[in-house]
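User: Hey, quick favor. My workstation is busy. Could you predict this chain's structure for me?
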Amino acid sequence: MNDSPRPPVVVRTRPELEAARAALTGTVAVVMTMGALHDGHASLVRQARQEADHVVMTIFLNPLQFGRNEDLAKYPRTFDADLGLCTAEGVDVVFAPGPDVVYPDGDPGVRVSAGRLGDLLEGKSRPGHFDGVLTVVAKLLHLIRPDRAYFGQKDAQQLLLIRRMVRDLDFGCEVVAVPTVRESDGLAMSSRNTYLTPLDREVALVLPTALGAGESHAPEGASAVRRAARDVLVREPLCLVDYLVLVHPMTLEDVPEWYRGEALLAVAARVGTTRLIDNVLVNIGADGEQARSV
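Assistant: No problem, here it is.
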């Protein structure tokens, strides 16, 4: 008896996707990726499989969300390995289109605007990035028509904007957040971690260390959280910090010193040639047991 997992159906065109989607009965979940899959992506699939009858994964390296000087050309492309992960995790359909399928008329003249929230934090450092993200997410949601879409908490601003778009524009699907998956040493899993040299990899650990330090001071208030995280970062000169913020998770506005409640402690930094982001949700003013339960 052959108990090996069955590989997913791989489709690359719109008609192929339509046929594969029509064959799926019951609830359908989608996990959207740019490939170079790792266990963080696998965690999205695992939760999706628990909560839906079928899982569709998209593997599409979206050119709209890369700036002029960003790493589109060198972004890792590992389709065979990606397909192996999809097979192991029980993905039903993989939609892996080329740019000409997603954008048949070339660079789209009409795009989704991320609005004011898209100009903050990552959007300030990467102008237009979130317009590109939301545009492709909108197109893929229309093409796949899922009941649920799963995204990682590591990309907290992206998650917030996708939720706002789905709600504001009445897409009719549920957006589900999945906790950040970390390496054994605490570094958040990312496809860009493959760019890190051994030294870079060691330096990069300052990011989760800083977030952990800030989180541990949550009962003392916002100032203590910011100070503790900042004190860790300044001790690592090879980590070039873009931003370290403590913001409201729904507005991305800095929380005031008197604030009590859930806040997002987020950091972005360049280590070597690689830009990394990470975040943690903290409960400001809560005691230690409450803070850990956020």
